[in-house]
Amino acid sequence: MSLIKFLIRASGLTGAGGTLPFEPTPEQYAQLQKWPMVRDPYAAEKDYHPIQRWLRWLKPAQIQAYRKYNTVRNNQIKAGEIDFQKYFETVPRPISREKWEYLKLRKSWYIIVNWPRFAGEDCRRILDCACGDGDVTQRLVDYVADEWKKTGKGHELEVVGIDLGPSRIENAQRLTTAPDPRITMKFFTGNAVKEIAYPDNYFDYAELTGVFAILDDVSADALVKNLSRVVRKGIYIEDPYDRHFGGFPRKHLAKLFEPYGFRVEKRFICLQEPFSLFKVPDPCRVFSMGRIQNLWLVRD
Questions:
Q1: pLDDT digits (tens, 9 = 90+) for 1-37
Q2: Which residues of 73-85 are buried (b: 16+ CB within 10 A; e: fewer)?
Q3: Architecture of the structural domain at 89-298
Q4: Contact 123, 155 (CB under 8 A)
Q5: Residue ranges per domain, the chain?
């Protein structure tokens, strides 16, 4: 029996039927604002140590969150309901401004959009592939606008978000705001596995967050091919690193892009929240303490 399975059984915790919806309070948001990434965008990288891979399983809240997630996934697999693309394309997912703001800040711990290349003079078009509700897109343009203010520079920048789900695109259009008049934000429904309807090399850079882990090998290869056709210079990727039911996390994700001339500029592993054995940092308990990979790829 593995250490993880032993700890789960020893805890006596039972799996729940699903993740409950939540609406954060102002107090919970204020608590999240005390996290280190508010001052240091790379705090998650500095917080992580490989031994945390094992230590996290000594924490009852981690075991409970893990069992919740995997119980739901197991039931979906048994029922033949694990078609992720169909799910994200058809299920309505409205979101309040308060929840959107909370998740935008919460995900900033492990999704690091502060890439100087995004704010560089040679970056004129950015693709956010599978943009969801646009919260990460908003953080990206906010970062770019802040960098421009620091340097006194700036230029016309087109940012395009595409996603499978019409309701997610509606959320992004309703909730995002361009922080600088030189930045144009557009959101469209589309399936990037099948096609990215833009000319070759149209985008300078792209970002993808939490996408590849829901794609099988055929779909992942198709997405890599489509991205490599429309993106010229670089891609930022955030994706799960841990194994989980019904998903396809890849520890060697960068290798998929090597045939298209991309190389790794930077890569690191982190947890989805600040590590603690005795506290639950996230007042809303949105995610378990999963391992995440951040990957920056460039093409010379």
A1: 443 443 333 333 322 223 447 899 999 999 999 999 9
A2: beebeeeeebebe
A3: 3-Layer(aba) Sandwich (3.40)
A4: no
A5: 89-298
